[in-house]
Design a protein that fits this description.
With 111 residues, the chain is of the alpha+beta class. The protein has a single domain, classed as 2-Layer Sandwich (Alpha-Beta Plaits), CATH 3.30.70.120. It has four helices and four strands. It has helices at 14-26, 66-76, 94-103, 107-110; strands spanning 4-11, 32-45, 48-62, 85-88. The protein has a four-stranded antiparallel β-sheet. Strand 2 (32-45) and strand 3 (48-62) form a beta hairpin. The longest helix is centred in the first third of the chain and has 13 residues, at 14-26. It is elongated and about 45 Å long. The model has no long low-confidence stretch (mean pLDDT 94).
């Protein structure tokens, strides 16, 4: 069974978040992306405390897509220093894991 991972990133614009989520699924880098928000983020940037409204993407993907997904985010994420964290799903329904893996296969791999 493929190892499924969950990744998180945030964006400051709902439209950009929707676009990025759709691209990840369309390009089969992710099986599912959930958009949540707005959420309020508290952080330090360039030495000053900040508070911003952002939109969180929760990205579910097979482990073998991790490097390509990270490259995609580096190229397409609007932030200079985007939040990106990913971790393996410790427990996952086997049927969901199979679906997630198949969702990210190319046409040839699915044949």
């Amino acid at each position: 069974m493929a190892e499924i991972w969950i990744g998180f990133t945030t964006l400051d614009d709902q439209g950009k978040a929707r676009e990025l989520a759709a691209q990840l699924v369309e390009q089969k880098l992710a099986a599912c992306v959930q958009l949540e928000g707005p959420v309020t983020s508290f952080f330090r940037w360039e030495g000053a405390a900040q508070q911003e409204q952002e939109y969180r993407l929760t990205i579910k993907f097979p482990r073998e897509h991790l490097v390509d997904l990270e490259r995609f985010l580096q190229k397409h994420h609007p932030y200079d220093t985007p939040e990106w964290m990913a971790l393996p799903a410790e427990r996952i329904d086997p049927a969901y894991a199979r679906w997630a893996r198949r969702s990210c296969l190319s046409e040839q791999e699915n044949a």
